[in-house]
């Protein structure tokens, strides 16, 4: 029977292998083509439920993963993960990525198999049929590799459901996902194969218990925590983390076979990151670029907001070492700075257990949308750490330098340390920490236990002398700990006086290391272990230490004293490890009895190991001597029984191993007889010569030093919104209330509008340094407490009630008395009439008559409303405009927000770039700026609408939301007070007033894919692009829609962005098909090629001598100098998602006017400028006699 099963399995595998190898690029992977799975194939089945983890699956062949080759068991989870170690309980449900453990995630999401909602199978398979199939899949992805696996871990998630959360999403009802992960291993390497069959992924998001909403699945790898001493995030690679990328998993491939993805995850080449296969699917038509790149703009969703990655190539299989060369990015590739970031807004997955130091710059590989080539995935990583992204890991008193393999920090002149931690030379240092112990004294069988005991140490650096006190030590153990001066001696080693060419502990480690010591008492069966963790300098400028004592010590009688002679100790150095051992004597003098004080000499052997991290990238650093000698003298130990304090004091110097010539030690700087001030450094000279030099932050002759008050001498040292506090040798800046420190070190406004800040029925408005709460419409109160109530009546309503009364209490209307008319919002109707006389006139928003508008009986003047439409409030948190400082800014759109980038002249001030407006529920495409009212207008294609917001602050407003398909380009006539936009779904161009009223269709014929649109307000011209693949063109007309004609038709590819410079009268555009930026004067036929070789331009604007365009391939804003036809600079936003529209927010409007700029050109409704004139037009669907059309 077993033979039959094996023969049938082998036959199945041969058939499947033949299908896979013969599959063309268009053939989807079927479920029948997955690796065999199920109980009949020896699979184990994970228990049904939510957030479950399997028992360890013990492996016969060890897995290789990143830089490890010893993984002999794995764990399978419900949530689409294979873990290299057992996940902690708090990480069994998805949270922020990466997790603390090594993980392979073919589809990380909150999945559910409760009550039969799918199954999860797993096994290790050694059969030749399965390993051969795995080898063939790897061969397709890595054709240059000869890979012969001996085992394969096969994990299958079959028909699993999404976790729905408390409120079930009906759209996910019945949706099930099936996918598979194979980990194939040989003796030297491991590859991962992800299989996504056709119709296998029916949902791309699941409810997150941490986020409490739907979040996209993640396809990724994580090395987990690394480091022997300090645990930090290892490398991790994210391949998909948004709906579109996840949705394309079954449709594309990196191995040439649709739905099959192959990655090298463990070998000598993957120490710094997973290596993806790079075999593209073939395209049917061989087109240079894909329509889908452009069509997809109308289908983008909110998921665009979460894609994050880095602008670097992933390592290729043939590469070695780390990779540090920035590459040309594909149009769909996203890039970011991060701390991943930070998390900004990070990819969602496992919750980290807490803060871990140091935070390494992660490697990220990511996926965005469909490339020009039609391939879904784009890979990019920065496996070399650079100063650009890691300057924060250096001390503020250090410089950062890049090297071929990474970066290193080094303290600047006047400071000492390892570069990560630096302190002023010669300045006294303080060390604080905690001590806990479990110590047996003498023959006692009951340990003395103490917890949370304070340790404080003060170090006079120029003497190398340390004073250490440990408080609240029980007297039952206090005297017996007197010989253990090395507990505090390690602090002396850290700040020992350095002889020329030798380094003390702080210079080597920066006060960040782990020390483990063992004390064996000769002649006694007693042994004590000491564990100490030094964690660098805290926010108060003090070093921190944690100490743990455990073991047995000989008993020393109460009241005894201990004397320790000067001693030397040899420290042996190898890479990131320091060791020493010695034998020491100490003399115990007991309390006087019968006129004598007996004393005894005892011996103990001392052995210690210090482990630390050092920078290995700088080969030019002086090599540390392999052996250094620590000389310790003036040793003083005391236990104060009344205060229960244990005290140690020692003087320390570090230098060469003595060879019988101690002359070097005779310099006063080394023996402590120099007389320098406590806040000065002693500089040894020839022989016994020396000089005293005040430490940084102090002034004087070195013999006497006094503190510099930096706050008085530099009143503006802390910048705006901050106060300066002077401290000895330094100063501190603190932000005033309502502000916090930014990553750049400046004080920025805190957004106080957090949940529960205001009443639930109120809106919260953030203001600089504060916030304001206002009750919503229909509620009354101070914003902190709102109750339903009658809305305060408007001026019009109050005036009307004084005449006619209220509905409950009407008044008789006297004849001949004027009664004002109010609209639904209580505003004055713009046309007011006297019922008795028949006269009519126009009024302003305050009800005051507009001069010269009164008409005779029976005539109604064409009055225009001066009241803005009702404001449609968005979410009350984080959506208000953050007012920018004065000046000219570039405004550009990213999914979910608009950012501002200040210009100084034509130079982008990149360090001052900030978010102007958060709009998390929008996909903003086009931008236009009104230089008159300082308003920004945008188009949103997620829920098609047009919105606006004031740069002065406040909430955004939706002005148009009806009868829109996919509004993309938007332009503004600041003189005629109109907006124009293109709609690529409805194939038309429309115009409306700035408040969204009086809409009129200008064109709805001969348009295929209209996109960019701009105005020449002074001349009354309109320009737009149409990237119709069969007939791309740039057209123009007057603003009233007349005189339509083709301006450019030849030599265009995909004309995208368009800009008109009012100062130079130049029309410029960027073309993603020809990869060019070009300009012309509309009155002249000559086209000027400004720049070729653009990556993937989308939108463009102009200011001064420069063009600025957004690029989809580099996710950046690029500045092009028109005079020299050269790219001058680029700006990569912190959040690296796709950039869309861009516009110039001018500090003042260009000079000029048109015929609509005064009194609306005399038009009743739309005034549309034309060269030298204007046309009055009526809105569409307007009936009645109030509107008059005329030229």
UniProtKB/TrEMBL annotation:
By what name is this protein known? Answer: Nidogen 1
């Amino acid at each position: 029977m077993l033979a039959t099963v094996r023969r049938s399995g082998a036959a199945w595998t041969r058939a499947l292998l033949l299908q896979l190898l013969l599959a063309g690029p268009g053939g989807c992977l079927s479920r029948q083509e997955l690796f065999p799975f199920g109980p009949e194939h020896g699979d184990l089945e994970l228990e049904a439920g939510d957030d479950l983890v399997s028992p360890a699956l013990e492996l016969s062949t060890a897995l290789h993963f990143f830089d490890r080759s010893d993984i002999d068991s794995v764990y399978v989870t419900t949530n689409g993960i294979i873990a290299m170690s057992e996940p902690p309980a708090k990480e069994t449900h998805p949270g922020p990525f990466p997790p603390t453990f090594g993980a392979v995630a073919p589809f990380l999401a909150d999945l559910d198999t409760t009550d039969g909602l799918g199954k999860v199978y797993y096994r290790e398979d050694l059969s030749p049929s399965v390993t051969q199939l795995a080898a063939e899949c790897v061969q397709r992805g890595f054709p240059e590799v000869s890979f012969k696996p001996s085992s394969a871990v096969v994990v299958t998630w079959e028909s699993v459901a999404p976790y729905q959360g408390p409120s079930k999403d009906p759209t996910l009802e019945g949706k099930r996902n099936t996918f598979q992960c194979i980990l194939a291993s040989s003796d030297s390497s491991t590859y991962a194969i992800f299989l996504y069959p056709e119709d296998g992924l029916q949902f791309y998001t699941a409810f997150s218990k941490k986020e409490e909403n739907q979040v996209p699945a993640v396809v990724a790898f994580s090395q987990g925590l690394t480091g022997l001493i300090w645990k930090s995030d290892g490398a991790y690679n994210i391949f998909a983390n948004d709906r579109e990328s996840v949705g394309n998993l079954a449709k594309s491939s990196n191995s040439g076979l649709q739905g099959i993805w192959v990655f090298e995850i463990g070998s000598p080449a993957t120490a710094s990151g997973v290596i993806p296969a790079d075999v593209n699917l073939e395209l049917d038509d061989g087109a240079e670029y894909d329509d889908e790149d452009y069509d997809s703009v109308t289908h983008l969703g909110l998921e665009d907001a979460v894609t994050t990655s880095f602008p670097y190539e992933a390592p290729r299989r043939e590469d070695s070492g780390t990779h540090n060369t920035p590459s040309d990015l594909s149009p769909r590739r996203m890039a970011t700075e991060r701390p991943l970031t930070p998390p900004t807004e990070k990819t969602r997955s496992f919750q980290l257990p807490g803060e871990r130091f140091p935070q390494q710059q992660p490697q990220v590989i990511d996926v965005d949308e469909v490339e020009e080539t039609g391939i879904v995935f784009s890979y990019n990583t920065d496996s070399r750490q650079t100063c650009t992204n890691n300057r924060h890991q250096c001390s503020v008193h250090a410089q950062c330098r890049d090297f071929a393999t990474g970066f290193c920090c080094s303290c600047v002149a006047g400071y000492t340390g390892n570069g990560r931690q630096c302190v002023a030379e010669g300045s006294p240092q303080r060390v604080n920490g905690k001590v806990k112990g479990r110590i047996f004294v003498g023959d006692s069988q009951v340990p003395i236990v103490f917890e949370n005991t304070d340790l404080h140490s003060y170090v006079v650096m120029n003497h190398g002398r340390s004073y250490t006190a440990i408080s609240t030590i029980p007297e039952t153990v206090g005297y017996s700990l007197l010989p253990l001066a090395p507990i505090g001696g390690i602090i002396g080693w850290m700040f020992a006086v350095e002889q020329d060419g030798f380094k003390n502990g702080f210079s080597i480690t920066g006060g960040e290391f782990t020390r483990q010591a063992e004390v064996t008492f000769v002649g006694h069966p007693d042994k004590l272990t000491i564990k100490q963790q030094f964690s660098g300098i805290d926010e108060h400028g003090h070093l921190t230490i944690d100490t743990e004592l455990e073991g047995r010590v000989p008993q020393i009688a109460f009241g005894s004293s201990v004397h320790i002679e000067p001693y030397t100790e040899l420290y042996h150095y190898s890479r990131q490890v320091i060791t020493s051992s010695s034998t020491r004597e100490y003399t115990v003098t007991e309390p006087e009895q019968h006129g004598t004080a007996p004393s005894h000499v005892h011996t103990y052997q001392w052995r210690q190991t210090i482990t630390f991290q050092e920078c290995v990238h700088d080969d030019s650093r002086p090599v540390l001597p392999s052996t250094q000698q620590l000389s310790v003298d003036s040793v003083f130990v005391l236990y104060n029984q009344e205060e229960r304090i244990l005290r140690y004091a020692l003087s320390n110097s570090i230098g060469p191993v003595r060879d019988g010539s101690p002359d070097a030690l005779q310099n006063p700087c080394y023996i402590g007889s120099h007389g320098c001030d406590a806040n000065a450094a002693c500089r040894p000279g020839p022989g016994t010569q020396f000089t005293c030099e005040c430490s940084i932050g102090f002034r004087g002759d070195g013999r006497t030093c006094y503190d510099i008050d930096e706050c008085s001498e530099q009143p503006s040292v802390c910048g705006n919104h901050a106060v300066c506090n002077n401290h000895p040798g330094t100063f501190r800046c603190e932000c005033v209330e309502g502000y916090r420190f930014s990553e750049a070190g400046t004080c920025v406004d805190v957004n106080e509008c957090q949940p529960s800040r205001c009443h639930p029925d109120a809106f919260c408005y953030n203001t600089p340094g504060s916030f304001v709460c206002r009750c919503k419409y229909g509620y009354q109160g101070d914003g902190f407490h709102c109750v339903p109530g009658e809305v305060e009546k408007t001026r019009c309503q109050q005036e009307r009630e004084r005449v006619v009364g209220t509905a409950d209490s009407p008044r008789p209307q006297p004849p001949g008395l004027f009664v004002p008319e109010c609209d639904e919002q209580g505003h004055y109707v713009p046309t007011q009439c006297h019922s008795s006389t028949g006269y009519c006139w126009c009024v302003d928003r305050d009800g005051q008559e507009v001069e010269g508008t009164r008409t005779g009986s029976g005539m109604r003047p064409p009055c225009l409303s001066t009241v803005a439409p009702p404001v449609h409030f968005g979410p009350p948190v984080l959506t208000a405009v953050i007012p920018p400082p004065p000046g000219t800014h570039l405004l550009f759109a990213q999914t979910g927000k608009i950012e501002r980038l200040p210009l100084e002249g034509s130079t982008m001030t990149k360090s001052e770039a900030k978010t102007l407006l958060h709009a998390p529920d929008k996909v903003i495409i086009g931008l236009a700026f009104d230089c008159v009212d300082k308003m920004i207008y945008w188009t949103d294609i997620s829920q098609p609408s047009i919105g606006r917001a004031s740069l002065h602050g406040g909430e955004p407003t939706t002005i148009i939301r009806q009868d829109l398909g996919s509004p993309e380009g938007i332009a503004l006539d600041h003189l005629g007070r109109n907006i124009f936009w293109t709609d690529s779904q409805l194939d038309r161009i429309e115009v409306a007033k700035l408040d969204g009223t009086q809409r009129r269709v200008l064109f709805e014929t001969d348009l295929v894919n209209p996109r960019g649109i701009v105005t020449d307000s002074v001349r009354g011209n309109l320009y737009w692009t149409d990237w119709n693949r069969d007939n791309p063109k740039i057209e123009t007309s007057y603003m009233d829609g007349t005189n339509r004609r083709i301006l450019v038709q030849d030599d265009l590819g995909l004309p995208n962005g368009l800009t008109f410079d009012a100062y130079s009268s130049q029309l410029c555009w960027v073309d993603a098909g020809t990869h060019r930026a070009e300009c012309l004067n509309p009155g002249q036929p000559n086209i000027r090629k400004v720049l070729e070789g653009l990556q993937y331009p989308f939108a463009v604007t102009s200011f001064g001598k420069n063009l600025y365009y957004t690029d989809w391939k580099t996710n950046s804003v690029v500045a092009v100098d028109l005079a020299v036809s050269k790219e001058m600079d680029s700006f990569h936003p912190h959040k690296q998602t796709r950039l869309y529209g861009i516009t110039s927010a001018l500090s003042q409007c260009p000079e000029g006017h048109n015929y609509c700029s005064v009194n609306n050109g005399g038009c009743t409704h739309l005034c549309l400028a034309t060269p030298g004139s204007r046309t009055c037009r009526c809105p569409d669907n307007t009936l009645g006699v109030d509107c008059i059309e005329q030229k």
